[in-house]
Amino acid sequence: MMATLDYELDPKQYQLLKAIGQAYDGTATVYLAKYLPSQSFLAVSRTNLDAVHEGFAVLQHEFYLMRLMQHENILAFNQAFITDNELWVVMPLMDLGSAREILDNMFPDGMPEMAIAYIIRDILMALDYIHRMGYVHRSVNASHILLSKTGKVTLAGLRTAVSMVEDGKWLRAVHKFPTQAVKSLPWLAPEVLEQNLLGYDTKSDIYSVGITACELANGCVPFCDMVPMKMLLEKINGTTPKLLDSSTLLSEVGQEGSAVDSGEASGNRKQSDPLQNPFTRLFSPQFHQFIEDCLKQEPADRPSASALLNHPFLKQVKKRTSEALVPFIQSLTSLTEMQQEAEQGAQETQDGDLVEKFQCMDMGESWVFD
Fold first, then answer.
1. Is the residue at 336 inside a domain?
2. pLDDT per residue over 180-228, tens digit each?
3. Domain containing 171 — which CATH number?
4. Taking the CB of residue 71, how many other CB atoms lie within 10 A of it?
5. Residue 361: CB partners within 8 Å, gap ≥ 6?
6. Cα dist. 75→61, 134, 158, 167, 182 in Å?
7. Count of alpha carbons within 13 Å of 229, Cβ hemisphere only?
8. Mean pLDDT (the chain, rounded)
9. Is pLDDT of 363 > 60?
10. Taking the mean position of all CA atoms in its chain, how far away is CA 178?
């Protein structure tokens, strides 16, 4: 029996606590909510249908896929109903937010390698399922990776997924360019950006996994400081990002102290844990090889999601993610913990900061349920 039957269709059964972001170009607001019958926390998205207009087809497409894709590492929805002119969608609350937000708030120089391995393993399992279902995700990035305090990792962003099956036949390639890809350009594979007759397939998602792994490890998004045309030229010419550690940074510093452009954003990045300092840390050779394999210029040379699950980099992943990530997430404060602190009236000044944090979250950039 599907989980959608467990939640009532009455909006009065949902207490909307805080707005935690926007979605669908501002036509939807996402709330931290409490389901009154069970007093459990969840997320509720309210979409103004009068304001959606031409985006309604995209909305339908996404919810069709969210219902179709039944996998523990893909964000699902528990219930959906229309009240007045609004579409309400009830979803599990991934109370640590997105991996991008965790990077920004806690790990500006990148996450520990072991945490990345577990996160990437779960995302690859989600992609393997999506690919076997005949779809290309086309929007893998840290903002679409959601985490919970229990160690659960899910992939969101199904609105951009495209089918590789037409009239019951599997296509060798697809040619549709993602219409809402402006924010996803740094993660898109060269063959997607080129828009040529060869098209692209599921291997384009593997390239995005490589970029995302760099993002998680380095704290910054490769190519994000480039204009689209320069980014396209760099990717077509074979420029591939690298993990920033003592082995790559020292080898790229010239005799005069100038670093070679590796496709990474320089930016004004805060210092984090000294153990994560790019000039002193050292990632494993297996991790470096994983990045290289994902970012192969030719799509056919990249491993499939299924093959990557057996990559030497992921051999260190032996536990369930919910168990292994506990030390990593203990220092992170969840939205539910923030809300409970606010409800108890503890530390009034801090509570004011919490309210501000809730109100400032941008679903389109940091915590994305789409």
1. no
2. 777 889 999 999 999 889 999 999 999 999 999 999 999 999 999 899 8
3. 1.10.510.10
4. 16
5. 20, 21, 97, 101, 367
6. 15, 18, 9, 27, 22
7. 0
8. 84
9. no
10. 17
Q: For 71-117, write each residue's pLDDT tens digit.
A: 999 998 899 999 988 999 999 999 898 999 999 999 999 999 999 99
β-pairing, 145-147 with 86-91? unpaired
Are 88 and 11 in contact, with CB atoms under 8 Å apart? yes
Number of independent structural domains in the chain? 2
Q: Residue 13's domain spans which residues?
A: 3-94
104 and 88 belong to one structural domain? no
- Report the predicted TM-score, pTM, of the whole model to 2 decimal places: 0.85
Joined tokens for residue 265: 């954003």
Q: Which residues pair with 32 in a beta bridge?
A: 18, 43
Residue after which a domain boundary falls, among 74, 94, 114: 94
Query: Are 272 and 324 within one domain?
Result: yes
Regarding whether 212 and 67 lie in a shared domain, the answer is no
For residues 205 and 186, what is the distance between their CA atoms, to the nearest angstrom?
Answer: 13
